[in-house]
Amino acid sequence: MTVxxxxxxxxxxxxxxxxxxxxxxxxxxxxxSYRSDETAHWKAGLPLAVALPTxxxxxxxxxxAATRHRVPVVPRxxxxxxxxxxxxxxxxxxxxxxxxxxIVEIDRANLVVVxxxxxxxxxxxxxxxxxxxxxxxxxxxxxxxxxxGNIGTNAGGLCCVKxxxxxxxxxxxxxxxxxxxxxxxxxRSVKDVAGYSLTHLFVGSQGTxxxxxxxxxxxxxxxxxxxxxxxxxxxxxxxxxxxxxxxAAGLTPCTLELMDRVTIAAVDDWHxxxxxxxxxxxxxxxxxxxxxxxxxxxxxxxxACEGAGATQVVRAESASEADWLRQVRRMAxxxxxxxxxxxxxxVGVPRSRVPELLTEIERVAAAxxxxxxxxxxxxxxNLHPTFVSTRGDQAEEARVEAACQELYRAALSLGGTxxxxxxIGAARRGLLExxxxxxxxxxxxxxxxxxxxxxxxxxxxxx
Length: 463
What we know:
Layout: H1 5-18, E1 23-25, H2 28-33, E2 49-52, H3 56-69, E3 73-76, E4 93-96, E5 103-107, E6 112-115, H4 121-129, E7 133-134, H5 147-153, H6 160-163, E8 170-176, E9 182-186, H7 198-202, E10 211-218, E11 220-221, E12 227-233, H8 236-248, E13 255-260, H9 261-271, E14 281-287, H10 292-307, E15 310-315, H11 319-330, H12 332-337, E16 341-344, E17 347-348, H13 354-367, E18 371-377, E19 382-389, H14 394-413, H15 432-436, H16 438-451
Parallel strand pairs: 2-4, 3-4
Antiparallel strand pairs: 1-2, 5-6, 6-10, 7-11, 8-9, 8-10, 12-14, 12-15, 13-14, 13-18, 16-19, 17-19, 18-19
Helix pairs in contact: 1-3, 8-10, 8-13, 13-14
């Protein structure tokens, strides 16, 4: 979408007149800082300006003005996304929700929390924990990603194997539509089947259907402290078989994460943790069942790992050791970024086919002569092969792109998906029809057209 200069100027003047208290960034340096998200390989556009609203009313007025002047709008949370979903569009207005960062209510009686979208995931977790409650969605970036961004991408994380993705925790939303109308979906009732499930439609839409201004999220009583272990393997095939064995045994660990040899070495080089660098892979396994049930579950997981050929099992003996083992996995992507330009992919397969996906990742990386470290949520079949190229080496970047395209098709051939939790965004837009089919995408386009007839909400993303 091309934005006319006259329309852009008119929009900024209109916002200045109607919302004199709105913080609006127009300096080139300020706009540049909101240009990109964490998708290092995606070339984003420079925003026309950046609006920082503090209320739903301001967001609604922004959208009414954008509709009047037909200027596109890009919603943005913390900018931690990995699919280009909140990356700038040239000449579009970016609406950043960092100032809408208030936890409105913690409702213990109904086990819900009401929050604005700019609240950081870790801050929400800490606030409800002080009330003896637990918010389950747990992205690896939880210390700096926002709830609004989590909702926009339907984010996953380390606990998905047991607690599901963000959508499973969203009960209700307040959203602003493209024309500025404000609607509420869902509610606090445990059961509510009135009408179409608009809440589930908006979760994961990456700002292409609405702007989320408030969310009502499901809480749980705080679980006991986790019992944690690492299991090391001589081959990735053995690690994959251990994942399959844990699943087949009917176990539901709250965490079942994998890292391969390249990732292990990258993390160990960064923090000198004394990890087993000879291992081809490791699994992080955790249980949060009560009392002795956690020990029983972990013992069964150890049996499954040893049966698959684990060479070493390390048990955490305290809460601090458990946190240390967990951080090994959380540091994976940042450790890979230190090696060059890191492109984290997000493919998923049915859990029983994780061993085959690991084999395909190794084959694709070797075929295209690219460096790849794999880590991710093995327990739910969602892995993050991360390709690393030398900064500025265009030939190597082209090989990485070819490897990614082959990887997507390999995942689909295994009955999987081209994105498990990061979203289609801009970076995977061309793959949606390949996975969902022409008819399904045409239905999505019809929904988009009905809610955003001018096409001003996050243009060029998802569809």
